[in-house]
Amino acid sequence: MTLPKIVRHVQTQHGDDSVDVENIFLFRANVNCTRAEAPAAEVAGGSSTNVAEIGAESDVKSEENNSINGVWTYEASEDGGSQLATIAEASPVQLPEKRKAPIGAETIECKKPKLETKDPKLIRPGFSEERYDETSYYIENGLRKVYPYSFTFTTFTKGRWVGEGILDVFSREFRAHPAEEYKRSIEAGTLTVNYEKVPIDYKLKHNDLLANTVHRHEVPVTSQPITIVHMDEDILVVNKPASIPVHPCGRYRHNTVIFILAKEFNLKNLRTIHRIDRLTSGLLLFGRNSEKARQMEQQIRNRQVQKEYICCVEGQFPDGIIECNEPIEVVSYKIGVCKVSPKGKDCKTTFKRIAQAGDYSIVQCKPLTGRMHQIRVHLQYLGYPIVNDPLYNHEVFGPLKGRGGDTGGKSDDQLINDLIAIHNAENWLGIDEEVAITGTIKNPAIAVASPSPTNQSGSQAVIKSTPEAKITISTQTGHESADLRFDASKVTADPLCSECKMNYRDPKPEDLIMYLHAWKYKGVGWEYTTELPSWASIDQDNCLLSLRNRRC
Predict the structure, then answer these.
(1) Is residue 523 classed as helix, strand or coil in its secondary structure?
(2) What digits encode the pLDDT tens for the residues 173-204?
(3) Are 314 and 515 in contact (CB under 8 A)?
(4) Per the residue annotation, which of 79, 208, 277, 511 is the catalytic one?
(5) Residue 404: strand, helix, or coil
(6) What are the residues facing 352 on neighbouring strands?
(7) Per CATH, the architecture of 149-216 is what?
(8) 343: enclosing H helix or E strand
(9) Which of 32, 67, 338, 419 has a 20 to 30 A CA-CA distance from 433?
(10) Residue ranges of the Pseudouridine synthase RsuA/RluA-like domain (predicted)?
C-alpha cells in the first residue's frame, strides 16, 4: 500500500511551521484499524480519549456528506496537549482521488520566459555559458593578458541608495572610473536603469536594476600555470600561482582561477569551498558537486581542517613556537582591511621559524581560527610583516607599520581614507604619463617598453573601433591554450573608452607576489599538500638568492 499524503484540515489549512495537532489527521500505511461508528467527539483538555471524524466520501461533489468511513483517535495528555494514538484498521482506508482533467481536454503548455524579455530578473548577463566566449588570452612578457571586451555590469539598487541620484551613487560606490566617465555613460545610454535610458538627475527606486556597459580592460596576471594537485568526481584541488584572484572581482573576470579552469581545462560549474588572497599562492579546493562542497565547507566552519602556511617575513623571527592570541577586527569590509583590536573576534595563530636568510625569515604558520587576513595581521602586530604585503607592510599604518597595534594615532576613518588614496584601483598599474596618441588607440595591455604591434609587412597596425559589436570578435571555449603572442586582429576598441587612450606599464615582479603560500590542508579523511615555492627553500643560500632576484 502506498503511503498516503498528509491531509490538511479543511478550515485551518495549516501549511506554515505551526502545528495544530487537534486539526491535522495523519493516515498511516500497513496498520490495522477497527471500523466503527462513533459519536462526534468533543475536544476537551480533561478527557482521556477523544474521537474525530473524517468524511472520506468518494463523491467529492457532496461536501455536506459526513458519513463515517473510519475512526481515528488521539490521546490527550494531562496538561491538555494531545498525541496521536495507535490506529487500527479493519480495511484499507480509501482516500478521495484527485480531480483529473476531462479526457480530451485541451492541454495548455506552461509559458516559458522569453530570452528577449526586459524583465530585469530574467536577463541579468554574465551567468550563462556565453560568458566564457567574451574574450581570450595571450601571453606576453611572462604575463597572462586579456584582450579588451565589452561587458555589462549589473546590480540591483541597495536600500541605502534609494532616493539618491544615479550619478552620485556611481561616483561614490564605484571608484574604478571618474565621475565624468559615469556622466558620459548615462548621457550616452550605456548606463541604464531597468535597461532604459534615464536623465542625469534620475533618483533611484527600490528594485531598480542598474546596468553599465563598458569596454573592459583587465589587469595582467602571472603566466605561471595553475597545476592540479588532485581531482576526482567530487573535488578538485589546485596549486594557485600568486597574483590570480579566485573568482571574478573588481578589475578581474577572465584572469581568475574560475575562468582559467573553465576555458583552458574545461572544468566548469565548480563550487568554491574557501578562498585565499589574490597575492597568496598555494592550495585551493573546489567542490565538483554541491553536496561535496557543503560537506567540506562544514568541516572548515567547524574548525576540523588543519591549515599550514609558509611565509617569508622581514627581520629575524625568534626561535621556538610563537603564539599570537590577539583579537582581530574588520575595519572596513568594503576595502578589506583588518587590525588587532580589543573589539575584535577571538583569534589564534602559532608561528615557528624554519629557516633564516639574512634579514629575512621563513616561518611556518598555523591559523587555528579563520579570520580575514589573520596571518598577515598577526605578523604585522608581532613586528615581522610579510615581504611584499602591499597592505600590512606599509607606512600607512604609521611609522612602526602597525607593530604592537600602533597605527600612529590614526582613527579608523583616517586609516581607511589613507588606504584608499594609496591603494586605489590604478595606482600599482603604473599609468604612463604619456596619454595615447591622437588618431591611434593603443592597446592598454601592451607594455610601454614593448614595440607597437606590427603586421606582416612591418607597418604599424591600426586598431579599428567596432562599436556595433556586442562582444569581441575573438572567442575561446573548451580547453584551448592562450595565444603565445599578441594578435592585433583580436582587439576591439571603443573611441569613448578612456582606458583605450592610456598606456599602462607591465606590473613589476613585486606587484605579482606576496610571500605567503598555502602549503598543507588536512581534514576528516583527506589531506593535500603542495611543493614549497622556490623562495621558501630550506637552503639558506638558495632562499636568499631567490628573494634577492624576486625583489630586484
Answers:
(1) strand
(2) 887 778 888 999 999 999 999 999 999 999 99
(3) no
(4) 277
(5) helix
(6) 321, 364
(7) Roll (3.10)
(8) none
(9) 419
(10) 234-380
